[in-house]
Design goal:
The structure holds two protein chains of two kinds.
Chain A (H helix, E strand, L loop, with lengths): L16 E4 L2 E4 L12 H30 L1 E3 L5 E3 L3 H7 L2 H32 L5 H8 L1 H4 L2 H11 L6 H8 L15 H25 L4 H10 L3 H28 L4 H6 L11 H11 L3 H35 L3
Antiparallel strand pairs in A: 1-2, 3-4
Helix pairs in contact in A: 1-13, 2-13, 3-8, 3-10, 3-12, 8-10, 9-10, 10-13, 12-13
Chain B lengths: L3 E10 L2 E11 L4 E5 L6 H9 L6 E6 L2 E2 L10 E4 L11 H10 L5 H15 L14 H13 L5 E5 L7 H18 L2 E6 L2 H7 L2 E6 L2 E6 L1 H6 L4 H6 L6 E10 L2 E6 L2 E5 L1 H7 L8 E5 L4 E5 L5 E10 L3 E8 L3 E8 L9 E6 L5 E4 L8
Helix pairs in contact in B: 2-3, 2-4, 3-4
Classes of the chains: A mainly alpha, B alpha+beta.
Chain lengths: 327, 363
């Protein structure tokens, strides 16, 4: 018999061994599964994970805050400047333009990715070749962003790029290349993002559509709903939480992924694609003003968190209700 | 309200045949039950009627309209699903209003119709609740309410009370029957429970393996099953089957088994003449169509294997000589004990004979 009672009062010898009615008992578990072990017990269990987390997340985060208050040059010596970096950002036109471009870029990416992604999911769901098609559709997503950028760089190329030729033949494009023109460069990078990340939305939506209750869809059809109406009143509320996850993921990605933009336009032409993360890269690693760079990075992080929270707040309530009320 | 005609309908899922050459006609206002074990094609039939499943071959008509290619929403039907299929984020009221909203009925009409249905189903006090706050029986009433507010041409019920507890189920059987009579709407009711079918339907279509076995009134199906399968499926406790030989002796016919030799009534003998040449027949008799007595005076001799007193009556499992056991339903005051010898007298006017090879009834 394993004695019950508080852990500390137990007559324990070394190695957790003790004797009960003359029998040797070695305990590997807390003495009673009903009694909760002390919080210290859990703390020790979590310690390795906490240390690792601190090393890779918390330390760099606080270091970033510290850096943003310094004037960091190429050399090892730094100088404390207080909030000067932030004050200078306030007056920095490129910083504000970066924000505007970032929101524009992110908005159009999300708009098209969600629309096309959900549409594809609806078409694919229950399709005879669903598995094969989804595998094919996922290919762009599997490609490293820098490689994707390179592929599209060639497709957009004004001498031998196929898309360039197509658009020019259709009269949509003038003499300049898609990514070379200030009017179309933004569209160019948005297209690549759509191409690469729509499959993710499709995949997530498709997963959501698998759990839409079939009997509800059918009941609604018999009640008199058209396919579109059925989608809006039954499917959409059910895939809502999934869409929220997809939007969150893509929105945060848009705020930090610059591989494709760097490869395609590098922020040009005339800085029309210099979204904030690209500007951040320039300031930090081209001009090596790491202090200012840190200040930008921190602002970007805070805005991302705020927007993420807002997004969850706006969308979460009905979504979570719907999950709770599943039959 | 409508006459429903199912003509030579087939349903394939890939190469699997779910419904084979089905022909059923439901009269206007009739309560038809489709009865069969799971996988017999009854649900496929209902789903084809609803338009949720493509009709592989054949025609379904509502009145004069061929509905094969009509969308569910254009068929003017209402369906109650096995799992109720309520919309979880809508209240009971909104659930019931949904089919009317989709047809752009006025708020006044919606209110009136829901009030009528809610009163009939006694769910007025539930209207503002959501499905998750309802019990199984209440959910089922809501689902039925959603169907009747439509005032459709045809009701399709897919095992609507299968998930309720036994007591509630018994009560709902009566209520559904009253409701259908009151509304006068044609109803097609799918079930695997023969008791439901027998107690509610005007006519029953018995299906097995995608094939319609028999279509008739509950009495016809109970008293004159067309084959051994229907005979065994309908009736609780099920019919006993005893293989025996048929012989002609001195102008009369006799059913002969190692435990008995019973004369066949003259009117049946004429119909059984063809069976003489076959290697034997299968006699079927229901548990309540035999009289059991202790001792050996009866026609068929055996011994009691076990008795099950059920209060109102007693079920007796009898071992006939020749190792065939037979279930007998008798009075509550039957005093037989295990291993007592006993004998049975068959009600020969109500027994059945089936072909051993094909299972088809001789009369």
């Amino acid at each position: 018999m394993v004695p019950t009672g508080s852990g500390s009062a137990r007559p324990t010898t070394h190695n957790g061994e003790h004797y009960v009615d003359g029998a040797r008992v070695i305990e590997y578990l807390p003495s009673s599964l009903n009694a909760l072990p002390s919080s210290r017990y859990y703390l020790w269990l979590m310690a390795p994970a906490l240390i690792l987390l601190a090393a890779i997340t918390l330390y760099p985060f606080f270091w970033l805050i510290w850096m943003s208050l310094q004037n960091v040059g190429a050399g090892p010596e730094t100088e404390f400047v207080g909030f000067k970096n932030y004050i200078r950002l306030w007056a920095d036109d490129k910083f504000w333009t970066g924000w505007v471009l970032l929101f524009k870029y992110s908005f159009f990416c999300l708009l098209f990715e969600i629309t096309i992604g959900v549409f594809l999911a609806v078409v694919l769901n229950g399709h005879r070749f669903e598995n094969i098609l989804i595998t094919i559709f996922l290919m762009p997503m599997m490609m490293a962003p820098a490689i994707a950028g390179l592929v599209w760089y060639y497709l957009f190329n004004s001498t031998f790029g196929w898309y360039h030729w197509l658009f020019q033949s259709l009269g949509i494009l003038g003499e300049t290349s898609i990514i070379g023109s200030t009017e179309t460069a933004m569209a160019g990078i948005v297209i690549v993002d759509i191409w690469q990340w729509t499959p993710l939305i499709t995949l997530i939506t498709l997963a959501g559509m698998k759990r839409v209750p079939r009997d509800q869809l059918e009941a609604n059809m018999v009640d008199g709903a058209s396919a579109v109406r059925n989608f809006i009143s039954i499917t959409l509320p059910n895939i809502y939480p999934f869409l929220l996850i997809a939007i969150m993921l893509r929105f945060m990605d848009n705020f930090r992924f610059i591989d494709v933009i760097m490869r395609l336009t590098g922020g040009g032409p005339a800085e029309v694609t210099k979204v904030l993360p690209v500007y951040l890269f320039d300031v930090s690693f081209v001009f090596f003003k790491l202090g200012r760079g840190s200040a930008i990075a921190l602002t970007l992080l805070i805005v991302t968190i705020i927007f993420g929270k807002l997004l969850v707040k706006v969308f979460e309530n009905p979504a979570s209700k719907r999950i709770d009320q599943g039959n | 309200m409508a006459l429903v005609t199912i003509t030579n309908v087939w349903k394939y899922y890939g190469k699997t045949v779910a419904v084979k050459d089905l022909n059923i006609t439901c009269k206007d206002g009739e309560f038809v039950s489709v009865l069969g074990p799971s996988g017999c094609g009854k649900s496929s039939t209902l789903r084809m009627l609803a338009g949720l499943e493509h009709i592989s071959a054949g025609d379904i008509r509502f009145g004069d309209t061929r509905v094969n290619d009509l969308e569910p929403k254009d068929r003017d039907i209402a369906m109650v699903f096995e799992n109720y299929a309520l919309y979880p984020h809508k209240t009971v009221y909104e659930n019931m209003a949904n089919p009317l909203r989709l047809r752009n009925e006025s708020e006044d009409t919606i209110k009136k119709r829901i009030a009528f249905a809610a009163e009939m189903l006694e769910i007025e006090y539930l209207l503002q609740r959501k499905p998750m706050e309802l019990s199984g029986g209440q959910k089922q009433r809501t689902a039925i309410g959603r169907a009747i507010v439509r005032e459709p041409k045809l009701f399709l019920f897919d095992e609507p009370i299968a998930h309720l507890d036994a007591k509630l189920r018994a009560r709902m059987r009566g209520e559904l029957k009253i409701m259908q009579r009151r509304l006068g709407t044609t109803m097609i009711y799918v079930t695997h429970d023969q008791l439901e079918a027998m107690s509610m339907a005007d006519r029953i279509a018995v299906m097995n393996n995608g094939v319609l076995q028999q279509f008739g009134t509950p009495q016809e199906i109970y008293n004159h099953p067309v084959n051994e399968w229907v005979a065994g499926f309908v009736g609780e406790p099920p019919m006993n089957f005893i293989d025996c030989d048929l012989i002609e002796e001195g102008g009369g016919f006799y059913a002969v088994h190692s435990a008995f030799k019973v004369a066949v009534p003259a009117d049946q003998a004429a119909k059984l003449r063809g069976a003489l040449k076959s290697s034997g027949v299968r006699m079927g008799i229901r548990p309540d169509q035999m009289a059991i007595s202790l001792g050996q005076e009866g026609a068929a001799k055996g011994s009691i294997k076990i008795t099950e007193p059920l209060g109102g009556d007693t079920l007796v499992d009898v071992d006939l000589k020749g190792a065939h056991h037979v279930l007998v339903k008798t009075d509550a005051d039957f005093r037989g004990q295990m291993n007592n010898s006993c004998s049975l007298n068959f009600d020969t006017s109500r027994w059945h004979f089936f072909s051993k090879e094909t299972g088809v009834a001789y009369f």
